[in-house]
UniProtKB/TrEMBL annotation, chains A, B:
<comment type="similarity">
    <text>Belongs to the class-II aminoacyl-tRNA synthetase family. ProS type 2 subfamily.</text>
</comment>
<keyword id="KW-0436">Ligase</keyword>
<dbReference type="InterPro" id="IPR006195">
    <property type="entry name" value="aa-tRNA-synth_II"/>
</dbReference>
<dbReference type="InterPro" id="IPR045864">
    <property type="entry name" value="aa-tRNA-synth_II/BPL/LPL"/>
</dbReference>
<keyword id="KW-0547">Nucleotide-binding</keyword>
<dbReference type="InterPro" id="IPR004500">
    <property type="entry name" value="Pro-tRNA-synth_IIa_bac-type"/>
</dbReference>
<dbReference type="InterPro" id="IPR050062">
    <property type="entry name" value="Pro-tRNA_synthetase"/>
</dbReference>
<dbReference type="InterPro" id="IPR002316">
    <property type="entry name" value="Pro-tRNA-ligase_IIa"/>
</dbReference>
<keyword id="KW-0030">Aminoacyl-tRNA synthetase</keyword>
<keyword id="KW-0648">Protein biosynthesis</keyword>
<dbReference type="InterPro" id="IPR033730">
    <property type="entry name" value="ProRS_core_prok"/>
</dbReference>
<dbReference type="InterPro" id="IPR002314">
    <property type="entry name" value="aa-tRNA-synt_IIb"/>
</dbReference>
<dbReference type="InterPro" id="IPR023716">
    <property type="entry name" value="Prolyl-tRNA_ligase_IIa_type2"/>
</dbReference>
<keyword id="KW-0963">Cytoplasm</keyword>
<comment type="subunit">
    <text>Homodimer.</text>
</comment>
<dbReference type="GO" id="GO:0004827">
    <property type="term" value="F:proline-tRNA ligase activity"/>
</dbReference>
<dbReference type="InterPro" id="IPR044140">
    <property type="entry name" value="ProRS_anticodon_short"/>
</dbReference>
Length: 451, 451
């Protein structure tokens, strides 16, 4: 993309009402614009990051064998009366009346609707196991929306639902989600720690929240420091292998790690003192096993191998897709701006032309742009007629992990400058070598994508 | 995808309340499920088609230089009061009140919001031309929703908005949309004819609707038969070339083609009688130039080259993404089911194993499945333990354009059977030759995708 043809409305001033770094930086970098309290437009740069996150979530869900569909944003109140949640949910549920005075709501979650889909179409245990998921906009009418997209009202979530014949099978589905989530967050450059949590209005016994450590996190968390040494890495996973997934669950959840909701001082005291940590965390996902809580009242049953009808065991599993954009920034920024991990960056590399309008720098930049694209990379070329300082400041603010600077002095010795946004270190090398280096850097990101 | 692990709830019986073919077939093929009047869940097969259509729209918009962003589904009433549409829009506007008694609405279109984004961030004519678009769910509270996704209440639309300094520039943007739409529909296997139309509640003078001819269309249309001979084809387009695009506009709009809203019997009478056609059409898109209708009341101005502030010239341009799924089926089906064009089919090819459980047919099917995937094709393998007749009926119903049948008799002579859904013709050939044939058939589809 050429910046002269893009829409990147960066702000010079820091918005006064933005209290946390991600909110400030998303406004300054022209990623979002607030349209109403807790409701945002995703401007092109922000939307691009949102798409990359969504794509990683999709790939990892499908790798785990989960099947995408799409439920609508509006639901009928009728369905929520069946589960008893229409009256129980409180003021955060946005209730709507249509022209025919029918009661509806803007879905904050989809347990009822997916259970309705299941009971309408599935009849036999032979069609299990089944996990369906969607990535759809939700609404939660927060009394005081704040922190930008971190606590918005209209938000994008991936929510998946498993249907299984037995509790045992459903716990395997739970483990599939845990493992796929570990992998998902690592691809985004995040360490998200599964912590024992409280089930809240979804219900159920088994539940883990995934938390990213950050000073601005909304939850206080308590954990054994050994847990931050765990890496999922590129291990081979067979999602049908019950023992393997149970092993991963145990590896990642056997150490103490809890939010303030479930924290137990007596248990925590057994962790060796030098490994006890207290910090703050941002919740970026949660998985639940809740058995027959919805299937029983709503009649979601299957005929089992013995010919008898039995309610299915279910769980639900969410990833906060729009919230992740904020969480990633909270964990990756400095005073100058955002520092995107390679896995989610909106553009792979920025090209800064130091002397726009000069025939030789212009043509060197154009050639570089083409060669990067030929390698499957996605460059943002700052071809505006602006001072170098302004171009650097924009690149630092929007946080592309790599920058190539092209100027007459370097070109005289056939070099360009490749700079890492994270370390600030620069290297002079030929344009060809710079392209090859970037292709190498991004090779693991491309390889992680689902074929 | 293996069918035994997919969620494809086909119905044996024709739903009684579905009046048109696309609605019946989408229900029978397990593509959608109605959740409330005019509100649907997109089950996995339907969602896959929806995604393919969305991807083509995205690719062609970006090819034309238009920039994606995403506006929220809910909007504040305040914004619509500025344009005067809050009171004018009538009962189809779904009005919502939040917990703080603020008036909101579920957006049926986004002229106001995009104008607000523009006026907040753009100040100079140097930032023009600019065209922003999004693909987002909309709501129109139809008094009598019907025909499935063809006239639903919650629907997916691509809506794009151009901002230009002059009327002339805005008409070039209009032409960019016309050309990109012709290309978009052709990639979906549709002939959509641009017809002079009425602007309705969007406003403006210049507008064309794109109509697909089909007996079940909601509009009566009148046209010169020469227009159906026009093909966009794979011509090279430079979207910055004003004359070239004007030439395409003239080529595709100079012949008589109007909907009942703008039909003029006296002008139609001048078309030679043997070329006069009356038919029905389904509207799948519309483009508008409306000048300063929104920019003036909402203060969307730029500083021009002369230093004076001037309201920008705008247009809006829509493609009915969810409606297209229905329109494509209306134009492509027979008594047995859907017949997908290659450009939008949910799976490229179906594999039918005639003797599931037989070691040699199973392994031949598995090998075929892997080889198709290795060629970048997306097969659906019916690996269920079902009779051949049931497998064929399912494949015909869901309408994959190609089917490979694998059975013991063919394998004895090293052949499989490749069948066209459209013609019903079959050919016996080696598995390798079948894979190569399919790769050839789909090569133009893959080549049309935006690199």
């Amino acid at each position: 993309m050429r910046l002269s043809r893009y829409f990147l409305p960066v702000l010079k001033e820091t918005p006064a009402d933005a209290q946390i770094a991600s909110h400030r930086l998303m406004l300054r970098a022209g990623m979002v614009k607030q349209q109403a309290a807790g409701i945002y437009s995703w401007l092109p740069l922000g939307f691009k990051v949102l798409n990359r996150i969504e794509q990683i979530v999709n790939e990892e869900q499908q790798r785990a064998g989960h099947i995408p569909l799409l439920m609508p944003t509006l639901q009928s109140a009728e369905l929520w009366r069946e589960s008893g949640r229409y009256d129980a949910y409180g003021d955060e549920l946005l209730r709507i009346t249509d022209r025919h005075k029918r009661e509806m709501l803007y879905g904050p979650t989809n347990e009822e609707m997916i259970t309705d889909i299941f009971r309408s179409h599935v009849n036999s245990y032979k069609d299990l196991p089944l996990t369906l998921y969607h990535i759809q906009w939700k609404f939660r009418d927060e009394v005081r929306p704040r922190f930008g997209v971190m606590r918005g009202r209209e938000f994008l979530m991936k929510d998946g639902y498993n249907f299984d014949l037995t509790k045992e099978d459903a716990l395997h589905a739970y483990n599939r989600h845990l493992v796929s989530y570990l992998r998902t967050y690592e691809r985004m450059g995040l360490q998200a720690i599964p912590m024992r949590a409280d089930s809240g209005p979804i219900g159920g016994d088994d539940t883990h929240e995934f938390l990213v450590l950050a000073d601005t996190g909304e939850s206080e968390v308590f954990y054994d420091s050994e847990i931050t040494d765990l890496k999922f890495g590129d291990r081979e996973i067979d999602y049908d292998n019950v023992e393997q997934l149970q092993g991963v669950l145990e590896e990642f959840t056997s150490r103490y790690a809890r939010t303030d909701e479930t924290h137990d001082e007596a248990v925590f005291a057994k962790v060796p003192e030098e490994r006890r940590r207290t910090a703050r965390g941002i919740e970026v996902g949660q998985i639940f096993y809740f058995g027959t809580k919805y299937s029983e009242p709503m009649g979601a049953t299957v005929v089992g191998p013995d010919g008898a009808r039995t309610p299915v065991h279910m769980g639900s599993h969410g990833i906060g897709v729009s919230r992740l954009v904020g969480a990633i920034i909270e964990a990756n920024h400095d005073d100058k701006g955002i520092i995107w991990p390679e896995g989610v960056t909106p553009f792979d590399v920025g090209i800064v032309n130091l002397k726009q309008g000069d025939a030789s720098t212009d043509s060197a930049c154009e050639a570089l742009y083409r060669e990067l694209k030929a390698k499957g990379l996605d460059p943002l070329y700052d071809d505006r007629d602006e001072r170098a300082g302004a171009k650097f400041a924009t690149m630092d603010l929007i946080g592309l992990p790599w920058r190539i600077t092209v100027g007459p002095r370097g070109l005289a010795s056939n070099t360009v400058e490749l700079t890492s946004r994270r370390t600030g270190e620069s290297e002079e090398l030929s344009a060809e070598a710079a392209v090859n280096r970037l292709a190498e850097i991004y090779a693991p990101v491309k390889a992680a994508a689902f074929a």
